[in-house]
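Standup notes
- DV: blocked on the single-chain target, sequence here:
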Amino acid sequence: MEVQELLCQMFMSNHRFTHPSDVVRSRLVWTMTARSNFKHLLYNARKNAQEVSQIADPTLWRERAPTWMRRDYWESLCNI
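- DV (later): unblocked, structure below
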């Protein structure tokens, strides 16, 4: 199961809705919020790696991987 789907199911299991259309709308809002928050997390990770290493080249940030991200994902992002 995809992480996003698992997190959404966990959220939805804690809430009840009176109309089926509310479920669809809440899923849409949850997805938009999750995307925005993830984008913000990536921005902060990049900013932190740059500040700590004092180097502008992202390929040299590989050793500054955030603790919450898999190292291979971080290295792939640094290569982009």
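- Follow-up: The chain has a mean pLDDT of 89.
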